[in-house]
Each structure stands twice: as C-alpha cells, then as structure tokens.
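User: Show me a protein chain along with its predicted structure.
Assistant: Here is one chain, sequence first, then structure tokens.
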Amino acid sequence: MNLLLVTIFVYLLNLPFGYWRANVKKYSFQWALAIHIPVPFIIFLRIYSNIGFQLYTYPILVGTFFFGQVSGKFLFTKLKKVSLTIPTSCLVMDLYRSYSKK
C-alpha cells in the first residue's frame, strides 16, 4: 500500500514540473531544474514511507517520474491549443485562469 501511495504522489508531484519543462528552452537551466527539483522530495518520501531503496521500486518510481513529466507536457500542449490566452509556466495558475473564465 505504501508503494501505491508513493507512486501516486510522485506522479502528481511531477505534473507541474513537466508542465514547466514544456514551456522552457530544451537543455536550459530552467529545463534542468524542472527535472531535478522533484528528486529530493521523492528521496525524502522513499525514506519516510518505509519503502526504502529496494531494487523492485526503482522501475516503478522512475517510470512514474517520467510519466508525470510527460503528462505535464501533454497538459501544456493541450491547454495551449484550447486556451485563448498564452499559457505560462505555472500549471496551477493556468488552470485557475482557464476555469475562472467559464
């Protein structure tokens, strides 16, 4: 059960960072930050959720990490096509603006 909760948290944590990564120049400093900022939080979560660093958890969490990043990028491109305003790098504010207009 702990692994499932950590997996969900890793996915949700990486959505806004993937969204941010989609709006910056590839291989720039901000692009690298969007990938690497979630890592300490995930390490902290692994330690304090008692799943540790067992070998079987790596493919699950690494896959979830990248799936969250790709899903965030997908959200950015989808919102860019649908929205009348130009999306920023902040997923939360863009969703708030898009839903407050309706």
